[in-house]
Design brief:
The complex is a heterodimer of chains A (371) and B (286). With 371 residues, chain A is an alpha/beta fold. Chain A is built from 12 helices and 14 strands. Chain B has 11 helices and no strands. In chain B, helix 3 packs across helix 7 and helix 5 runs antiparallel to helix 9. The chains are: A alpha/beta (371), B mainly alpha (286).
Chain lengths: 371, 286
């Protein structure tokens, strides 16, 4: 087990440190907004035991927005609930603004709230405003004293017109926003949001992303977002923690993660291809997503600059006419798929390659991870 | 450096935000237990009236079952039944109160779990215990209101008069149903852990009838059971006009003691079951 969350420059909690520019910041347990060290949770016992969270460590700086990603069953929800004290972990230390959540939950809950059930996070028979007032009151606020802040919140979330409407009469997307509003109704500084944009249309999702950034930047709210929507994570988050099979496999900034994949892929269209020529190219280079129509072929290849020129030279030597070359940039979704599939394939204890190592890897057969 | 990188860097360096609010500051608490209780009572009443059919049916069935007993009993037993009508009304009033408190807190916990709001009540700076206590008070408050309506209708239908000295009736009735509330907390806790326990929970409702009508003079030990002592005292208060200060201290002590014990037992059981639910990771599942 690691002694404390990884230092700056580390990005993996279950392997040796790897050089990356930014990762879980090296904050002490008192400086971090969220400090998680060696969190472990196993359900059941004996042969049926399932380790949902396996020695998870990370820190989140105040005002930082972190995306918690992972495939279904990766342990994200158990991690979040263990951090919040809703699930009792077997081991590990969790602090929110220096307060031990499990030793002094009431003091910790002064700072933190969570949207865990999506649109089911509030009372559908109450109006939007009644929900905000209620959840503010049970979080130690006088509803009248924070009414102005609630109005502002409703305004920012485009809910002002629906303030006196029962939540059950709202659309799914609006219910989702009411849930978020009810979480923010109390005066919190840390919020966990599970799938905050689920059910929202594109416009509402974009608006909500802007609002989440505004809350982080203007109110200094620390946010941990769990989402399968990579666009949301890419837009909103400063950093990403990717989990797989209960472990943290990646803890890095969005920028570094994407940069690590920029060995750039190319999508090339060429004319004048015959079977022998294509086979010769496929022998020398790892072409993927090959689509052939008569003498015209289109394929993708992940290559550095030198390899790219060798490829085009070889194509010219075989008399191929290169019709077009497009650069294919990676996005977070493919980084995520690549990282989790690699983590699943590696034997236990084997190091997970850094983003730098990934960038030097040969292209995968299907061209995944290079778009 | 990209925006995201700058933001991350700023966050790590602990920069203040634009409106001067320091990161990690202590949230401002403007409300206390009074506001908590007020909000919980208000929310309970709102939810009750926002299910109008359920609320109306509850009141109607309360009156309907009594009317069935009253007219049926009068038809079968005639004068003999009418002589014991005061005792029946007091017993029925207490049964509606007990049932309201017991099923009220149990259903509330189950509903919160199914609505996805139970975990939010766990994550409050007041603590789960005080919030559940506030819920219990809210339910007792609402139950008194609905049972009072049923009582008034019963008195009007039967043309009976009872001694309704509130200084006596309210504390005795409240302490009596504290036992039922304790049992409701036990069942509420079990429902968080095991989810569907309605068969057992419903059976217990009928046990209340036996407890309320238990013969305390013939079976003195029965006084330590929930509802029994309070039921006997409420009969004396409402039928005979006995005042609170006219009960002997031993009788009052048993009432207070059993009320405190069963409520504490319920709370401890609820705490243990919710802790177990947290251990198993099923607190918010339904």
């Amino acid at each position: 087990m690691m002694n404390g969350p990884p230092d700056a420059g580390q990005r993996l909690s279950n392997g040796p440190s790897v050089d990356t520019n930014e990762a879980s910041p090296s904050l002490t347990r008192d400086d971090a907004a969220i400090y998680v060290d060696g969190l472990t949770k196993t359900f059941g016992g004996g042969e049926d035991a399932v380790t949902a969270v396996d020695d998870v460590s990370f820190t989140v700086a105040p005002g930082e927005v972190v995306g918690l990603l992972g495939p279904n069953g990766a342990g994200k929800t158990t991690t979040i609930k263990s951090i919040l004290g809703l699930v009792l972990p077997d081991e590990g230390e969790v602090r929110v603004h220096g307060i031990d959540v499990h030793a002094d939950p009431r003091a910790a809950y002064e700072h933190v709230d969570a949207m865990l059930e999506g649109a089911r996070n509030d009372y559908w028979r109450l109006t939007v405003r009644e929900n905000l007032r209620y959840f503010a009151a049970i979080r130690g606020q006088t509803p009248d004293a924070v009414a102005d802040r609630h109005e502002e919140l409703l305004d920012h979330l485009d809910l002002a017109d629906k303030a006196d409407t029962a939540v059950r009469d709202l659309s799914r997307g609006m219910k989702q926003k009411v849930s978020l509003a009810s979480v923010l109704a109390g005066d919190i500084s840390v919020a966990f949001l599970d799938e905050p944009t689920l059910g929202l249309d594109v416009e509402s999702s974009l608006k909500l992303r802007t609002e989440l950034r505004r809350l982080a930047e203007e109110r200094g709210l620390t946010l941990v977002l769990s989402s399968h929507d990579m666009d949301v994570i890419e837009d909103v988050c400063d950093r990403v923690v990717i989990m797989n099979e209960g472990r943290v496999i990646v803890d890095d900034t969005v920028e570094d993660l994407l940069a690590g994949f920029e060995t750039t892929g190319y999508r090339i269209t060429a004319r004048g291809v015959d079977d022998a020529t294509l086979a010769a190219q496929q022998e020398r280079f790892e072409l993927s997503d090959v689509q052939r129509s008569g003498s015209r072929v289109r394929f993708e290849v992940a290559a550095d600059t030198e390899t790219f020129y060798r490829l085009t030279d070889a194509m010219e030597a075989h008399g191929l006419d290169v019709a077009s070359v497009e650069t294919v940039q990676p996005d977070l979704a493919e980084v995520f798929v690549e990282m989790t599939s690699r983590a699943s394939e590696r034997p236990d204890g084997e190091d997970i390659p850094s983003t730098g190592a990934l960038s030097a890897e040969p292209p995968t057969g299907d061209g995944g991870g290079r778009r | 450096m990209t925006d995201a990188a700058e933001r991350a860097s700023d966050a790590r360096e602990g920069h203040s935000d634009a409106d001067g609010v320091a990161h990690g500051r202590n949230p401002e608490r403007t409300g206390g237990y009074y506001h908590l209780l007020k909000a919980v009572i208000y929310r309970d009443l709102l939810i009750w009236v926002r299910y109008p059919l359920n609320a109306a049916l509850g009141l109607f069935m309360g009156v309907f079952f009594f009317a069935l007993m009253f007219y049926g009993g009068t038809l079968v037993a005639g004068e003999a039944f009418s002589d014991s009508i005061e005792g029946l009304i007091v017993g029925y009033f207490l049964w509606t109160l007990s049932l309201g408190a017991y099923s009220g807190i149990m259903n509330d916990i189950q509903s919160e779990a199914s609505w996805g709001t139970l975990e939010r009540h766990f994550m409050t700076p007041f603590g789960f215990g005080p919030v559940v206590l506030a819920k219990s008070i809210a339910i007792v408050f609402r139950t008194f209101m609905t049972s009072a309506v049923i009582l008034v209708v019963m008195l009007l239908v039967t043309g009976t008069t009872l001694d309704l000295n509130l200084v006596t009736v309210l504390p005795v009735a409240t302490l009596t149903i504290a036992g039922a509330l304790g049992l409701g907390l036990v069942m509420g806790g079990l429902s968080v852990l095991y989810k569907r326990i309605s068969n057992v929970a419903n059976l217990l409702q009928f046990a209340f009838i036996g407890l309320i009508s238990a013969p305390v003079f013939d079976l003195p030990w029965a006084r330590v059971l929930p509802l029994v002592q309070g039921s006997a005292m409420l009969q004396r208060a409402m039928v005979d006009g006995t005042r609170l200060w006219e009960f002997d201290p031993g009788t009052l002590a048993v009432l207070v003691g059993t009320a405190g014990c069963y409520l504490a037992l319920g709370y401890v059981a609820f705490s243990l079951t919710t802790r177990r639910a947290r251990r198993l990771g099923v607190l918010g599942h339904y």
